[in-house]
């Protein structure tokens, strides 16, 4: 709409015909746009009085729930479908190596396959979650899943590169720089930890972690909390105190970690090169070199879970097995309640035609 509005006197008018002065106020004609909201947007929180922060947190929790549910269902579906003859065919196809001297080429082709599949689904989480149950049931070897995962890390960088190319021209340079940093970071990781077989440490580390987790189920949650929450929070808190504090604390801990790794390697390969005291860790308290005391503490704290728990802790399995054995024993006792029949069977004689009904538990049970 065309309306009269006030402007500063120093503003240049486009035409003297559209500007006039009344006292100390200068007026002009301008087009003013007014927006009238005729109808509300259609979404689930349209009539809610919650603030934007609360709505965002609710949507975040729901999205994480849907994501985790979908991943769990994908894993369950693949675990149930890929069995039997299908599993053997996939196992022969994926785990096949090229003949010598081109054996090394299969890993790099697996990288290309992982990058291509991740580029198609646009999610490395979906791809890695799909191959995880295949590794668990033995369809894909862990040595072959390693290059597939590295390729997935390359394929997931294409999302950032495509987003950077779609940015405006004024910010294209900086967004593309960040996307390429993401890409070359993953490429550098592949160069460091794949071409030379001896440097493929993640394979050995994953096997060690898998063996520990298979024996102590709680260690998986402890590992996630430590590596993805407690350790970053610890380093971040030290960084707030300054670089001097960060280096003064982290550097000795890092040197101690390297020393422990070196001693462990030498204990396995060349124990006689070490002093007699360092040939094993028995000189330390048990809780410092074994997870068994920690397992006893955690399992005893979870002893209240009972038979209705999720099946995570060992006490549930032990109780379930004991109850199952007890039920089998009771059923066996119920079957042979007729002592005469038991005697006939022991003598190998002919079973008596008469069938007795014995009521021991308040119900009529037919004795065999």
TrEMBL record:
- Which keywords fit this entry according to its UniProt record? Cell membrane, Disulfide bond, Glycoprotein, Ion transport, Membrane, Sodium, Sodium transport, Symport, Transmembrane, Transmembrane helix, Transport
Single Gene Ontology MF annotation: sodium:phosphate symporter activity
For biological process, the GO terms are: intracellular phosphate ion homeostasis; sodium-dependent phosphate transport
Query: Is Transmembrane found in the keyword set?
Result: yes
Provide the family line.
Answer: Belongs to the SLC34A transporter family.
- PANTHER family reported for this sequence: SODIUM-DEPENDENT PHOSPHATE TRANSPORT PROTEIN 2B (PTHR10010:SF23), SOLUTE CARRIER FAMILY 34 SODIUM PHOSPHATE , MEMBER 2-RELATED (PTHR10010)
Record-given protein name? Sodium-dependent phosphate transport protein 2B
Q: Which organism is it from?
A: Tychaedon coryphoeus
Q: Which gene is annotated as encoding this protein in its UniProt record? A: Slc34a2
């Amino acid at each position: 709409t065309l309306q009269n509005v006030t402007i500063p006197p120093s503003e240049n008018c486009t035409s003297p015909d559209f500007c006039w002065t009344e006292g100390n106020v200068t007026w002009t004609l301008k087009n003013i746009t007014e927006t009238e909201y005729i109808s509300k947007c259609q979404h689930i929180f349209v009539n809610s009085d919650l603030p934007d922060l609360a709505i965002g947190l609710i949507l975040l929790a729901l999205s994480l729930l849907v994501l985790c549910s979908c991943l769990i269902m994908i894993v369950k579906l693949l675990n149930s479908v890929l069995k039997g003859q299908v599993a053997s065919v996939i196992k022969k196809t994926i785990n096949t190596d090229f003949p010598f001297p081109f054996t090394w080429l299969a890993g790099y082709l697996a990288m290309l396959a992982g990058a291509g599949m991740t580029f198609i689904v646009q999610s490395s989480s979906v791809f890695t979650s799909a191959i995880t149950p295949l590794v668990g049931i033995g369809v894909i070897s862990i040595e072959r899943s390693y290059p597939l995962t590295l390729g997935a890390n390359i394929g997931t960088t294409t999302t950032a590169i495509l987003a950077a190319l779609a940015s405006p021209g004024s910010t294209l340079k900086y967004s593309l720089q960040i996307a390429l940093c993401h890409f070359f970071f993953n490429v550098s990781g592949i160069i460091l930890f794949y071409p030379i077989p001896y440097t493929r440490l993640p394979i050995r580390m994953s096997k060690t972690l898998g063996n520990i987790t298979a024996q102590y189920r709680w260690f998986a949650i402890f590992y996630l909390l430590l590596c993805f929450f407690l350790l970053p929070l610890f380093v971040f808190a030290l960084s707030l105190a300054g670089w001097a504090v960060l280096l003064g604390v982290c550097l000795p801990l890092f040197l101690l970690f390297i020393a422990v790794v070196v001693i462990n390697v030498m204990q396995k390969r060349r124990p006689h090169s070490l002093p007699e005291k360092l040939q094993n860790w028995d000189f330390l308290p048990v809780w410092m070199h074994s997870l068994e005391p920690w397992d006893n503490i955690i399992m005893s704290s979870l002893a209240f879970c009972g038979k209705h728990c999720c099946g995570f802790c060992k006490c549930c399995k032990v109780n379930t097995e004991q109850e199952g054995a007890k039920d089998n024993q009771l059923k066996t006792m119920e079957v042979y309640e007729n002592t005469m029949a038991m005697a006939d069977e022991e003598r190998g004689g002919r079973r008596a035609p008469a069938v007795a009904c014995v009521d021991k538990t308040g119900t009529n049970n037919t004795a065999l």
